[in-house]
Write a structure and sequence with these properties.
SH3 type barrels, mainly beta, 2 helices, 41% strand, 79 residues, single chain
């Protein structure tokens, strides 16, 4: 069964994914500057109890994202 594209905000800790696209809005440049660009592999390291923030490992470091930022990133699950 092929992997389906989903939002980063829908992943659980330990899941890996590849960034497919980022919504075209003012936040896009900030996310790309932080290492979140199409083709980059990431994995979820932690999610706070209320679902925000997300901690992801991307581009060689751990990055914290707010829920609204994670909802702008389309990914393809790897596992």
């Amino acid at each position: 069964m092929p992997n389906m594209d989903t939002l980063l905000s829908q992943l659980k800790p330990g899941e890996k994914a590849i960034i497919k696209s980022i919504a075209d809005n003012p936040m896009k440049t900030k996310l790309i500057e932080m290492g979140c660009f199409p083709g980059e592999e990431l994995y979820i390291t932690k999610i706070a109890p209320l679902g925000c923030p997300f901690a992801i490992y991307v581009s060689g470091y751990e990055l914290s994202l707010r829920l609204n930022e994670a909802m702008n990133i389309v990914v393809e699950r790897l596992n």
